[in-house]
Input
Amino acid sequence: MKKKGSVVEFTQQRNEELLSAFREQLSFLGELPLEQIFTRASLSPASRFWVSERRAMVVMSHMMKGDQLLSMNQKRREMFYEIFRRVKELLRLEPSLTLTEASFRAVNSPAPEFYLTPKSARVLIYRLRA
Output
């Protein structure tokens, strides 16, 4: 699992996208409670999955062997299951791909959401706006 305090090279890009999604939700929604705006921002599409290619490949390898990721929090598990679905589809369409190549492509494809809880999104946004 990820080591506490580890920093990933795309953290700044993720933070900028999340803050942009938050601001976009603010401009569209007007009078909604702030918690709903955090929820909508966290559910906004992202340019990629916010996990390193290497970590995704390791998790995909575990999932191929039957690991159900039960010790992982729900949002992370959802994210990895979506990546796994895409990896399996890539491998089906292009059998010559390696698991590493398929994982790389899947992680770097657009993600349907940030895979953050509203509470995590709120903490990040408040930290970024400070």
